[in-house]
């Protein structure tokens, strides 16, 4: 299995869930921009599950050497890479902040997934799981730069799913709502609408086994976002969301 964003609590919870359920992987490739944190997780799954892994450095803010990925082969790719950035008014007009949000969540991420999607296509098998966001369902003033990048990522996953369908490769789009992770630490999240990494991992694994196309981590978010998507624009533009 290839794990993009392996320092993510959700990614690590999904790896553990899959191994607990008896999934067998010759090797798990842990892509990370934080080697020290990932090494601790690699040791953990080695001790607990006797699972072999390999750590591969990946920083989407730097030039990527695709030659380093040439010998990596897998049947599952799990992508949990994401960057919320600064959502305040100051952050909105900070072009470095804006560029990093777009790069990490979409423009620099898509070529990496494409690289492995091509390998899956040539082998005519595999599953790609991408974590997008409910923020991509409709642009809202509180996080629309992040939301626009996630909207693009959702559209990319949808098109990739359509393209790879007859190549026997399945693509799953996961749309978490609020999640209790390092990325959202300090934000005033409603506990009834917030999932733990373990809850997210359970949902994602179920979607993986059932080969779903899209899934919200907490079902309530599907209802919330359906309502938000259907608010008429002349009303929606006046709301504080």
TrEMBL record:
Annotated Pfam families? adh_short
- Any idea which UniProt keywords this protein has? Membrane, Oxidoreductase, Transmembrane, Transmembrane helix
Gene3D superfamilies the record matches:
NAD(P)-binding Rossmann-like Domain
On the tree of life, the source organism's domain of life is: Bacteria
Check the record and name the SUPFAM superfamilies matching this protein: NAD(P)-binding Rossmann-fold domains
The reply to whether Oxidoreductase figures as a keyword in the UniProt entry is yes
Q: Where are the transmembrane segments?
A: 216-236
**Similarity remark:** Belongs to the short-chain dehydrogenases/reductases (SDR) family.
This one is known as SDR family NAD(P)-dependent oxidoreductase
Which source organism does the UniProt entry give? Chryseobacterium tagetis
């Amino acid at each position: 299995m290839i794990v993009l964003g392996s320092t993510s609590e959700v990614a690590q919870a999904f790896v553990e869930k899959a191994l607990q359920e008896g999934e067998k992987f010759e090797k798990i490739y842990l892509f990370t921009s934080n080697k020290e944190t990932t090494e601790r997780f690699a040791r953990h799954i080695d001790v607990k599950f006797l699972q072999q892994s390999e750590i591969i450095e990946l920083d989407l803010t730097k030039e990527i050497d695709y030659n380093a990925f040439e010998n990596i082969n897998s049947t599952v790719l799990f992508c949990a890479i994401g960057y919320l950035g600064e959502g305040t008014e100051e952050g909105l007009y900070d072009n470095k902040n804006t560029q990093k949000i777009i790069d990490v969540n979409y423009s620099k991420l898509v070529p990496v997934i494409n690289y492995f999607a091509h390998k899956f296509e040539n082998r005519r098998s595999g599953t790609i799981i991408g974590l997008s966001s409910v923020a991509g369902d409709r642009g809202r003033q509180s996080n629309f730069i992040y939301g626009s990048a996630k909207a693009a990522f959702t559209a990319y996953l949808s098109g990739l799913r359509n393209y790879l369908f007859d190549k026997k490769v399945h693509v799953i789009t996961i749309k978490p709502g609020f999640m209790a992770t390092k990325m959202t630490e300090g934000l005033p999240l409603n506990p009834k609408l917030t999932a733990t990494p373990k809850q997210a991992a359970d949902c994602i694994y179920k979607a993986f086994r059932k080969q779903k196309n899209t899934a919200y981590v907490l079902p309530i978010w599907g209802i919330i976002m359906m309502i938000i998507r259907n608010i008429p624009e002349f009303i929606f533009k006046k709301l504080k969301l």
